[in-house]
Amino acid sequence: MASRTFETAAGPRSEDALPASATSAVKIVIVGGFGVGKTTLVRSVSEIRPLTTEETMTQASTGVDDLAGVERKSMTTVAMDFGRISLNDELVLYLFGTPGQQRFWFLWNGLFDGALGAVVLVDTRRLEASFDVLGRLEESQTPFVVAVNAFDEAPSYTDGELREALDLTDEVPLMVCDARNRESSKGVLLALMQYLHSLAMTSEAT
Amino acid sequence: MTQVGEEWDEGGPERLYVLTGGRSGFDETGLDLVTLIVSRTPPQIGMQPEHESILRVCASPLSVVEISAHLKLPVSIVSVLLADLLAEERVEARAPAPALPDIDIIKAVIHGLQNL
Ligand SMILES: Nc1nc2c(ncn2[C@@H]2O[C@H](COP(=O)(O)OP(=O)(O)O)[C@@H](O)[C@H]2O)c(=O)[nH]1
Ligand SMILES: [Mg+2]
Hints:
The structure holds two protein chains of two kinds. Chain A is α/β, with parallel strands linked by helices. Chain A has one domain (24-54, 76-204): P-loop containing nucleotide triphosphate hydrolases (Rossmann fold). Helix content of chain A is 24%, strand content 30%. Chain A is built from four helices and seven strands. Chain A has a seven-stranded mixed sheet with strand order 2-3-4-1-5-6-7, sandwiched between helices. In chain A, helix 2 links the parallel strand 5 and strand 6. Chain A is globular, with a radius of gyration of 20 Å. Chain B is mainly alpha-helical. Residues 1-11 of chain B have low confidence and may be disordered. In chain B, helix 3 (64-71) packs across helix 4. Chain B has a three-stranded antiparallel sheet. Chain B has one domain (13-114): Arc Repressor Mutant, subunit A (Orthogonal Bundle), CATH 1.10.10. At the A-B interface, strand 1, strand 2, strand 3, strand 4 and helix 4 of A face helix 1, helix 2, strand 2, helix 3 and helix 5 of B. The complex binds guanosine-5'-diphosphate and magnesium ion. Chain B: Pfam families: DUF742 (PF05331). Chain B: This is DUF742 domain-containing protein. Chain B: It comes from Streptomyces reniochalinae.
């Protein structure tokens, strides 16, 4: 029987259980390159220890050195971390730390559908790592804010320099944060929500 | 589905194929990563162990993606397992909050974050 190999899941610790009254959930996506601080930010605000979900991607590839032209399959495991914040008795917020490469996003169908918005985390040592993500979010019309995670050794730029380098319009909120700091990370999420609030007010007024 | 050979690779794709009867889920199920799942019945003896685990961890509401993390199974597989349980009315699915812009939800999130 399949049960021989399935590790029976322990499930959440009792103190991590959501109340029975929890009726709906919303999500925010934290997106950025490897090592930019996504998991750190999620951890600093989440009420549960961040959890990981994995998908396996099968890629068919025909090797150039493969004389027979035989199709080979390689498998890659792609992981996504997430955390959770209970906002009140009914509403739960999930935070997803999503890999920056958009070619992985399809693995979690609907990840951005119905998301409140996104936080693009940026490391000023690797600004170019964000170009792809920013373009994608604009295309999909996902509202986002940009947060520079201030690593000690990283060069600092003025607001104007960053906006120009990242090709950001003036409306997009841009801020500096320390993903290790709870208040700072909370501030980033609040900035996104205030931005969404202003967008919603504008669209209601027209 | 119970006839499985001795040399069984636990994490391998073959196993996932057997688990889901060859279906691959998510799209068809209409479940979101953050759809909250709650058990309606306790686990029963003789159930497929994955189904049994889902019923157990969902004694209180749990999102699809948390089920995936706790069971160490991809969301795509969990969705198919959940489709079975939903069809048998063994679990209840609480759909995510409606699409934006919904000013009340935005305000609730702001308020919740400020109170952290
Ligand atoms: N100095 C500094 N280090 C940070 C900061 N945020 C994250 N780190 C470190 O950077 C490393 C990568 O962070 P992680 O959150 O795993 O990045 P991820 O790949 O985007 O999830 C970890 O060792 C963190 O401790 C920060 O704001 N300042
Ligand atoms: Mg990470």
